Amino acid sequence: MSGALAGVRVLVTRPAHQAEALCRMIEAEGGTAIRLPLLAIEPRANPADVKPKLAQPHDFWIFTSTNAVRYALPLLTVPLPERIAAIGAATAAALAAAGAANATVPMAGASSAALLASPELAELNGRRVLIVTGEEGLTTLEDELVARGATVTRAEVYRRIALPYPPDSVSAALRRSDVLIVTSGQALEHLLRLTPPEMRKALLKKPLVVPSARMLEKAHDLGFALPARVVDPVSDVALTAACAAP
Description:
This protein is of the alpha/beta class. It contains 11 helices and 10 strands. Helix 10 links the parallel strand 9 (about 210) and strand 10. The model has no long low-confidence stretch (mean pLDDT about 90).
């Protein structure tokens, strides 16, 4: 089969519900998609606990991911506000589908740092900001908003569950793979834990496709030998194209 990825075998580690369109795109370009979802995304253990936070008045809401949108919507007892922001185009599209079509998005990139560069977030003294996100997420965005004078509330609407795999299954997937797509630091750490000791040297030599400079740094800290291929902003098209890079 011809295509930009002809003969390339790609390990896709995204959560299953977010991976299939990417896998089909890889296969349409002639590659082989090897599915190994490392994390599952679930509602938080007690979703009702976060409802009061979503019902309180805030001057600005920020959604950190499409998962934040997906798991917040069933918990809302008030309409989405007029002033709302999204980290990245995919999250903004999810909000638009829910009726919030004018979300602020980063002028370039898809990260907390990129969103913080938006003029709408420059003056926040005395403003009440709600961050809709997942459990155990990074506090970079929250910390900077507080430093700018905002009162910040976190509404954690989902959680990430690390999935178990037999060592032989992980080893087999790695042996078959030429390049790895890993889109979160938690997933990358979990992959390293799952990899049997005799395969770790081989894993650390695999090319990685990652979504941010922060992930590039994490890969380096974990001992990966090759510079990761950074895709920012993230899209299935960009991830697929990065797998074809030399």
